[in-house]
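User: I'm curious whether this sequence folds into something compact or stays loose and floppy. Could you predict its structure so I can see for myself?
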Amino acid sequence: PPAAARATVNKYLDAIEAKAQANETRVTGYLEGSFGHDSNVNTSTSQGQVNVPVLGNLPFTLSQASIRSEDYYAAWAGGLNVQHPLNETIKLYAGVDLRQRGNMVQTSFDTLNLMGTAGGVFTIGQQDSLKLGLLDGQYSLGSVRYYDNTGINGEWRHVFSPANQLSVFGQQAYYRFVNSVRFAGMSTQDFDQSVLGASWLHV
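Assistant: Here's the prediction. I'll summarize afterward.
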């Protein structure tokens, strides 16, 4: 066929292929590693003594764990995400992320963060989409469970043109500390976190 006809046929074939891929279950993942040096592993002051004003500025000597320490560390992270379309307007997704960091000497400050997410993406017309999801995770410090966090998130996206799109997103998360022998009384540090934001993408 002539060049113009071939171009038209290829255009339709590309559209068919794109539509077929959009209706397929997608599995993606990642794996990363790092090595470095931290000048303040325990995020503490470098002073060995502090004066407490409420007690008449009496000096108190801090324990070694409360004084700044440095160390070398190795870290790795990995994640897996699955997206499955129910139909042309609804897609379900689920994912899990694991991040671990280990220090060479200060092992009591090793961290482990596990996070899971699940939700749906809803296409509204040709220009809008809405993403709603749940999150659940836990954070461990020195091999001891430190806090749990749960929450909900959402994102609305509007495409003005192939070159411009607007996103508005929000998240409400709840952090609850776990009382244990090592972290006794930490439940008083519980807090809630609200995040709102917007972004503009221009190609």
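Summary: The chain is about 10% helix and 60% strand. The mean pLDDT is 88.
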